[in-house]
Write a structure and sequence with these properties.
Number of helices: 13
Order of helices and strands: EEEHEHEHEHHEHEHHEHEHHHH
Largest sheet: 8 strands, parallel, barrel
Number of strands: 10
Strand content: 5-15%
Radius of gyration: 19 Å
Helix content: 25-40%
Structural class: alpha/beta
Strand order of the largest sheet: 3-4-5-6-7-8-9-10
Distance between the termini: 59 Å
C-alpha cells in the first residue's frame, strides 16, 4: 500500500480508501460488508469513507460493527453530514457517532456542496460549521472538510467563503476521473488550489459506480491509475466484493508515475465521450443529489424574509 499525507494534518492515509455507500447495498450482506472492511484494513488500507445518509444509516451501522475487535485503532474514519443548520448538523453527527460505535470520527465533511447558497448557510452564525467546530473542541471529531460533485466553481466558492470566515478546511472531496479531465474539471480547477493551500485532496467517482465504463473507452484499472496519478491524498472507490477489493490493491501495486505520452493517450481515449458530460450524470442531472430528493436533511430554511415571499 502507498501512504500519502492528508494535506496539512500530517496524517498518513492509504492512497486507496474504501467507499462506504456500497457496504449497505442490497446485494452486499452484513457478513460480506464486515469482511470487506476488515480485509482492507488487514491488507493496508486505513481510510474508510461513509456518510450519515448512506442507505438510511445501514452503511455506518455495518462499518461500526466492522470496527470492533481492535479495528478502530487501525483506521482513519471519515463520514459526512447533510445538515446546513447547527441543530441539524449536531443531530446527524451524534447519530453517526452512535452508528459507527466510536468516541470520535477522524474527518467529518459537509456533504453535497452543490449550490452556491450552501457555503453561506454552513458558515452562518447558527450554521453547520459552528456545530462541527464545537464538536471538534469537544473531541467528537478531529478534522473538518467538505464534498461536492456538481461544479468546480461551487467548490472554489466554498473555499472563498471559508476564507472570509477565517476558516481552513482539512480535506476536500470531489470527482476525479478520466471524463472529468475534459468537462467541468475539478482536476484542473480545484486540485491546484487545494495543493496551493495544502488541503487534503480526496478523489471519488473514479469510475462513477461503473457509469464511466459504459463509454467503452477505458478499463477499471486505468481509471484508478489516473486518479492515483493526480496529487490525491486518497482515492475513494466503491467495493462490493472481495474481487473488487483485489482490483483496488492491484491498482496500487501496478501504479507508476505516468509519462506525458501515457497520460495523453489515456485522455485521448475519453475526450469525445466526455464532452457533453453524459457519463458524469452527477454533474449534469439531479440523479446523484440526495439532498435534492430530501431537502429535510438540510434543516429549516432561514425564516427571516419568508413572509415577503409571494403567495
Amino acid at each position: 500500500m502507498i501512504y500519502r499525507t492528508l494535506g496539512n494534518t500530517g496524517e498518513k492515509v492509504s492512497a486507496i480508501g474504501v467507499g462506504g455507500w456500497h457496504l449497505g447495498l442490497s446485494h452486499v450482506d452484513e457478513e460480506l460488508a464486515i469482511r470487506i472492511v476488515r480485509s482492507a484494513i488487514d491488507r493496508g488500507i486505513n481510510f474508510l469513507d461513509n456518510c450519515w445518509d448512506y442507505n438510511e444509516g445501514l452503511s455506518e451501522t455495518r462499518m461500526g460493527k466492522a470496527l470492533r475487535d481492535g479495528y478502530r485503532e487501525k483506521a482513519f474514519v471519515m463520514t459526512k453530514i447533510d445538515g446546513r443548520t447547527k441543530q441539524e448538523a449536531t443531530k446527524q453527527l451524534d447519530e453517526s457517532l452512535e452508528r459507527l460505535q466510536v468516541d470520535y470520527i477522524d474527518l467529518v465533511q459537509h456533504h453535497e456542496i452543490i449550490r452556491f447558497e450552501d457555503p453561506h448557510r454552513i458558515f452562518a452564525e447558527d450554521g453547520a460549521n459552528a456545530a462541527l467546530v464545537e464538536a471538534r473542541q469537544a473531541g467528537k471529531l478531529r478534522y473538518i472538510g467538505f464534498t461536492g460533485h456538481k461544479d468546480p466553481r461551487v467548490h472554489l466558492y466554498m473555499l472563498e467563503v471559508a476564507e472570509q470566515h477565517e476558516f481552513k478546511f482539512d480535506g476536500v472531496q470531489m470527482p476525479l476521473n478520466l471524463m472529468d479531465a475534459h468537462y467541468r474539471s475539478f482536476a484542473k480547477e480545484v486540485v491546484p488550489e487545494l495543493v496551493k493551500q495544502n488541503i487534503g485532496v480526496l478523489g471519488m467517482k473514479s469510475m462513477a459506480n461503473g457509469i464511466l465504463l459504459k463509454s467503452n473507452t477505458v478499463k477499471p484499472i486505468e481509471c484508478l491509475h489516473y486518479a492515483l496519478n493526480l496529487p490525491t491524498s486518497v482515492v475513494i472507490t466503491g467495493i462490493d466484493s472481495m474481487e473488487i477489493l483485489d482490483q483496488a490493491f492491484e491498482a496500487v501495486r501496478t501504479c507508476h508515475p505516468f509519462s506525458t505520452e501515457e497520460l495523453e493517450a489515456l485522455l485521448a481515449k475519453t475526450s469525445a465521450a466526455a464532452l457533453t458530460g453524459r457519463f458524469e450524470p452527477f454533474k449534469t442531472t439531479s440523479i446523484f443529489d440526495g439532498t435534492a430528493e430530501h431537502p429535510e436533511w438540510l434543516g429549516e430554511e432561514p425564516q427571516e424574509f419568508k413572509q415577503l415571499m409571494p403567495a
